[in-house]
């Protein structure tokens, strides 16, 4: 999407949140831009996870946190939490499993915690360093 190419992951994620049918509280703290393939993978991962929360979780609210830490060799961390019914499972359906595969191409991971009754929290991590300062 143009907003991703022009303004980066943080603004693109905020734009995604604004288009959601349910309220999404966004907290972004990024030191700059990241390599294009990393930003693209992260953007589409966020899009898929937000879509799942809106379609399947019965959530009334979602929280999206995107941060980068220089510790651990540099890590982009994305957490999406919803107040829905829980029960999400990587083995069911192809959406989250596809996100996990996409992140794996960058040695990234997806962790899912979604007990029955909720809430659901999905954490994604991609090792990387910024390419351009904010």
Give me the secondary-structure category.
alpha+beta
Record the strand order, biggest sheet.
1-3-4-6-5
User: Could you give the distance between the termini?
Assistant: 19 Å
Quickly name the level 1 CATH class. Answer: Alpha Beta
Strand content: 25-35%
For the sheet with most strands, the description reads: 5 strands, mixed
Number of folding domains?
Answer: 1
Shape: globular
Please identify which CATH superfamily we are dealing with: Histidine kinase-like ATPase, C-terminal domain
Radius of gyration: 14 Å
Number of helices: 4
Mean pLDDT over the full residue set: 94
CATH architecture: 2-Layer Sandwich
CATH topological fold name: Heat Shock Protein 90
Residue share in helix = 25-40%
Low-confidence stretches: none
Order of helices and strands: HHEEHEEHEEE
What is the strand tally?
7
How does this model look, in words?
By secondary structure, the chain is α+β, with helices and mostly antiparallel strands. It has one domain: Heat Shock Protein 90 (2-Layer Sandwich), CATH 3.30.565.10. 35% of the residues lie in helices and 29% in strands. It contains four helices and seven strands; from the N terminus they run ααββαββαβββ. It has helices spanning 2-7, 9-18, 36-56, 95-104, and strands at residues 24-29, 32-33, 62-69, 75-82, 109-113, 120-127, 132-133. The strands form two sheets. A five-stranded mixed beta sheet has the order 1-3-4-6-5, with helices on one face. It has a two-stranded antiparallel ribbon with strand order 2-7. Helix 3 packs antiparallel against helix 4. The longest helix has 21 residues, at 36-56. 32% of the residues are buried.
């Amino acid at each position: 999407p143009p907003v991703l190419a022009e303004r980066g992951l943080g603004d693109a994620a905020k734009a995604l949140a604004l288009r959601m049918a349910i309220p999404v509280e966004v907290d972004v703290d990024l030191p700059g831009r990241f390599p294009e393939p990393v930003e693209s993978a992260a953007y589409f991962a966020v899009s898929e996870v937000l879509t799942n929360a809106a379609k399947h979780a019965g959530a009334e609210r979602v929280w999206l946190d995107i941060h980068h830490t220089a510790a651990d060799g540099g890590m982009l961390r994305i957490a999406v939490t919803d107040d829905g019914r829980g029960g999400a499972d990587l083995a069911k359906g192809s959406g989250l499993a596809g996100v996990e595969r996409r992140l794996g191409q960058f040695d990234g991971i997806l962790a899912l915690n979604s007990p029955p009754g909720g809430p659901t929290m999905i954490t994604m991590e991609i090792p990387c360093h910024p390419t351009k300062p904010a």
